[in-house]
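Example record

One chain of 116 residues, shown exactly as stored in the release files.
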Amino acid sequence: MLRGARIITMKGDEVIENGDVVVTGNWIAAVGRRGSVKVPAGAQVIDVTGKTIMPGLVDVHAHIRTAFGVHRTQVWEYLANLAYGVTTTRDPQTATSDVVTYRDLVEAGMMLGPRI
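Predicted structure tokens for this chain:
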């Protein structure tokens, strides 16, 4: 559970200044003002006071050009997308099947990157 952050929600221009985000099994289970959401017994509470939490950005026309034909254990281009808040990408023309391999590695948790 993340406690105390400013939370930018998906409800219009709503911003919760001191909020709680409950995460269960890698999914957001609840979002609300501090103390207003049910927290599962034994949940780890992480103080994120002074931080801002926002929904991930989706790049629907991403051309993440990685080295073709040489598979790496981590792709810096994917890390850069995550660093800028892009959590999902769609490449309308991949130019190589390597993207499919990297997508599978990200989905399997074997490499960090946005959902592809």
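Notes: The first helix runs from residue 76 to 83.
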